[in-house]
Amino acid sequence: MDNNNQPSHEEARAQSFFFRAVLLLTGDMRICREWVKRQSIIIQLLDWIFRGVAQVIFVNNPLSGILITTGLFLQNPWWALSGLLGTFVSTVSAIVLQQNREAISAGLYGYNGTLVGILMAVFSAKGSWYWWLLLPNIFMSMLCPVVSSALSSVANKWDLPIVTLPFNILMYLHIAATGANHPYFPEVDIQPKIPLNESMKSLSIFQLFLSVPAGVGQVYGCDSPWTGGLILLALLLSSPIICFHATVGSASGMMCGLALAAAHEDIYSGLWGYNSALSCIAIGGVFYVITWQTHLLALICAFFTAYMTSAISKVMSVFALPACTWPFCLSTLIFLLISLEIAAICRLPLSAVSYPEENRRYQKQLRASEKVEHSQQSISQEEASLKDAEGADTQLVGEKGCGESV
Fold first, then answer.
1. 187 pairs with which residues across the strands?
2. Which in 78, 80, 173, 330 has the greatest CB count within 10 A?
3. Burial 129-168 (b: 16+ CB within 10 A, else e)
4. What is the pLDDT of residues 331-383, one digit of tens each?
């Protein structure tokens, strides 16, 4: 009997070890975060930087940040270094300004700096390895915590996230202040696009398929489907729900681009997918608890964001400005402000927001505690009513005894 049971014990031990390893590397790697707190400031900074890189796409996982950074180097090493510099400067600036330490350690003061650093390099007309560009990169990244703190003081009144608004504001500030003819920091000349009467027969199904990961990669300004594939792998490692909604959101943006007769080149490069991917993730499990109703709401938000992308791109191109992530920010905030009486669509308070799987567990625990509290209240009410009934009976018996004695 013992010999027969021995393999099962070993298998159970191997399975438990596997599940512990999975829990250690997935989600927000909370165990790693607690371990990092006891290490030197260098290790802490590395953890915060890679979490900041991943927080661009709502992931709080340093291993996912490393995978995303690998994808950025695969696309363009100069862009990757600029993004890491922006993340580092933004994080250090938040420490100097004594912002919330928990938010800093979660990478929430680094991701806007990541986008500022990368997109400055992307929109620079000087191309790669123009070292003077690091000066405005450092300055604008240093301002990210300042703008974030200012916007948070307003957004917190409605319990809203600031998402990538600081990046959009600072990026527009830099591009508008320099422009295409600047002698030191010239920008790519952005002009309104002339609508092309392209035939549907010229569409490449293979390119449309690749546009989905490319749309995810465009969150970081990268049009390579290989970079997008690595980013999707990083999302899958942290949260399969986020990975699924990123894919669905990017595909929704691509389909809207086809419906709105967008240039095929823009669709293939993922420019129609990245804002929709971000909005779909935000509504589909990050700020709302994931249910099938929430999933439908996320799909609607993804299509709405694609229309917003088209409108904002056309308007801003008149001023030689890119759309950046304004469509995502405006669409997501609109969908977070809607008031619904549907119990299945539950928006979480910002203090409780985590990755979707953890958000669902949080809601289940909250409902269980509410049930326990409700049952305790009903029991206490029943006990109180029984005591009142017993007191009334005692008073009645006392009155009867007094009457008899009289």
1. 124
2. 80
3. eeeebbebbbebbbbbbbbbbebbeebeeeebbbbbbbbb
4. 999 999 998 878 888 899 998 899 999 988 888 887 777 777 777 777 777 67
Q: Within 10 A of 194 (CB to CB), how many other CB atoms are there?
A: 6
Instruction: Note whether 82 and 95 are within 8 A (CB).
Output: no
**Rounded to whole angstroms, how far apart are CA atoms 184 and 182?**
6
Compute, in degrees rounded to 10, the torsion defined by CA atoms 180, 182, 187, 192. Answer: -20
Kindly give, in sequence order, each residue whose CB lies less than 8 Å from that of residue 187, ignoring residues fewer than 6 positions away: 123, 124, 125, 175, 178, 179, 180, 320
d(CA 30, CA 79): 29
Q: Give residue 405's pLDDT.
A: 45
Q: Which amino acid is at 248?
A: V
Contacts of 135 (CB under 8 A, 6+ apart): none
288 SS3 class: strand
- Which structure tokens are listed for 11? 């298998």
Type of residue at 338:
I
Write out the H or E segment, with its range, that includes residue 305.
helix 292-317
Report whether 300 contacts 340 (CB < 8 A). Answer: no
Contact between 117 and 66 (Cβ < 8 Å) = no
Q: What CA–CA distance (Å, rounded) separates 50 from 70?
A: 11
Distance CA 257, CA 338 (A): 26
66-106 residue pLDDT tens:
999 999 999 999 999 999 999 999 999 999 999 999 999 99
The CA distances from residue 37 to 44, 100, 127, 291, 337, in Å, are: 7, 15, 39, 35, 36
Distances in Å between the alpha carbon of 104 and those of 20, 101, 235, 317? Answer: 27, 5, 21, 35
**Weakest-pLDDT range from 48-52, 302-306, 345-349:** 345-349
Tell me the C-alpha distance between 173 and 4, whole Å: 71
User: What is the C-alpha to C-alpha distance for residues 88 and 72, in angstroms, rounded to an integer?
Assistant: 16
Q: What is the DSSP string of 61-102?
A: -HHHHHHHHHHHHHH-HHHHHHHHHHHHHHHHHHHHTT--HH
